[in-house]
Design brief:
Length: about 425
Amino acid sequence: MSNKKQQTKKESSILLGIPDGDIEVDNDAYITKLGGLPVWLEPSKPPSSKVCECRICHNPMYLIFQSYVPLQDSPYHRVLYVWACNRRLCMRKEGSFSVIRSHVVDQAYLKAQRQKEEEKRKKEEKKKAAAAKQQQAFGNGFQLGDLWGNSAGSFGATPTTGGGFGMKKPSTTTAASVVASTPFGAAKKNDTKQDDLIKQMNELGIKDPIDTTNLPQFPGQYLYIDEEKTDNYESMGIDMSRYKEYLDMEKEMLMDIDEGNGETWQGEIYEKQHLPKGVDKQFKKFTERVECAPSQCVRYEFNGQPLFYSALRPKDQQLITSTCKYCNGPRVFEFQLMPNILSILPTTEFAAKESAAVAKPIDAKVKNVDAKTVLDSWNVGMEFGTILVFVCQKDCHQGLIEDVSYMEETALIQYETD
């Protein structure tokens, strides 16, 4: 009994993504990586360029994370992409980050499914022929065909907890073996609501497709996948005094910029943001947990519990509990990106290059200089405390089963002073 308890305590369902070296040839959709260019499951059918366009500055965003994450008992290959704008002025505004979930059916499954449907069709034809023959023998008074019933297939089964994070592309026999136990099907053509959803899907399809040759990119980095180990978690302690000093310094800096320009842009960017009185308990928990593996860039646990960077606000709670806009099913947590990514990807260096038109930082206290110009001159790239990604629990697939699909998912961004 005691051995079982000890084993359960050590086991962890949380997987961590750890940096594992540069990617020399970036052309594999079946890996997990930071940076680089997006690699599509179906290269001939990329998504719309809108999926990686910042909704604030309308510039192309950078891919910061891509992962092949198939779910158990699913016939689909599945990849998640996360984009972010590398312009500091766009941070803390809705539309500066984007998450896309992509599906393409496994060809072995599709072949087996069609073969199964063909066999079923032949059996039904034989039954009808036999029924017609019997009807002729007994006369029109007895409808033997009424004894034969057709049952509808089971569609849209909810996937079980995924274990695909960091997995290599599965063999073709894996998906084919699912046929007997987990049938999947296409949407009904006469379903008006489904047609509307497909229309939404088409907006993310190949209309105005992404041209990857024109996308900005960070150098690609492989991620090594390992289980989280927290054996020494309870014995760890973190000195939070330096974090409090940072909050005070940031508040003073923002006040100086406002006074120097005579404008209050702070109210726009930090709307309803209140600095904590003392230390944020949620942040302390976050920091202590991360200290167990400081180099982690990703935490993955499908249908698991996220590690929040700060306490949830009411609008955050509403966002992550909203239903899937395609199937109206529940959303669940799948993974989160960690702040160590900002030390792995050269966000500051690339932001400085993009702001090269500004010869030198502008003194914020100089008159007649607007706050936007000041911030642009100080552009040091993207920022975040953590990016939490919530996805459709049913892992719904819109359109026909053989269609490649791109579905927008929900990201909650928590920042330093949240």
